[in-house]
Predict the 3D structure of the following.
Amino acid sequence: MPRSVNAVASRKRRKKVLKAAKGFFGARRNVFTVAKNAVDKAMAYAYRGRKEKKRAFRRLWIARINAATRAEGLSYSRFIHALDQKDIHLNRKVLADLAMNHPETFKAIVDAVR
């Protein structure tokens, strides 16, 4: 019985990796074994980066809210605690947007929790 190698699936698998390596430099773009390692590493970085992006944005929102609340004579932590006490449910993304683009609305929220 002849040996079966399933060339169709192998070629498809290799083409998928090489397509993902498009734009890479040197052998990383066209040598399968090198490209496979590079693509695996790139996927790991991309996965990690999606998590880090969430952390970075949260830090940015907190910094913006802190700056806006300090301008109103209140600290960030006291402001967030007061929001919780008054049962006002606004997330940091929305609060940061209000602080940046609608300062009069943000001031009204700060006055409401005082």
User: Anything to note?
Assistant: The chain has one domain: 7-113. The chain has a mean pLDDT of 97. Helices lie at 7-20, 27-30, 32-71, 76-85, 92-101, 103-113. The radius of gyration is 26 Å.
